[in-house]
Amino acid sequence: MSEKTLTKPEEATEADTSAPGATYNGNPFPTPEEAATVSMDDLCGLMMMLVKVFPDPKTRIAPRTALQLKSKGLLPFVKVGGRTFYIPSEVRAAFERNGKINAVAV
Q: Does residue 68 lie within any of the structural domains?
């Protein structure tokens, strides 16, 4: 039986905001200033979409809840390659069509 040596993977030097679980300056959600740079009709990732659709953190759904809604077909999304993108205006419309939304109007 040969002995295998496990090596520690190289640590990333800077956060890759395109990677799953990416953070914005150490915070999982983008700041209001960062969110203001994205239009409601632009393609964006999960966390940015949540900030655009639910600007008030007290009424924002959890990322896991959003992913569950996506898997049930209740949340519109666009697949490009292996990446998933959302259009905040379409997501907001889906919430308004399918049920109650407790977010501040944008």
A: yes
User: Is 0.85 topped by the overall pTM?
Assistant: no
Domain encompassing residue 81: 39-98
The number of residues making up the chain comes to 106
Element (H, E) at 78: strand 78-80
In a domain, 26, yes or no: no
Domain count, the chain: 1
CA dihedral of 51, 52, 53, 54, whole degrees rounded to 10: 40
For residue 9, give both structure tokens: 């993977």
Q: 104, 56 in Cβ contact below 8 A?
A: yes
22-81 pLDDT tens trace: 455 556 777 777 777 777 788 889 998 998 888 888 888 899 999 999 999 989 999 988
Reduced to 3 states (helix: H, G, I; strand: E, B; else coil), residue 60 is coil
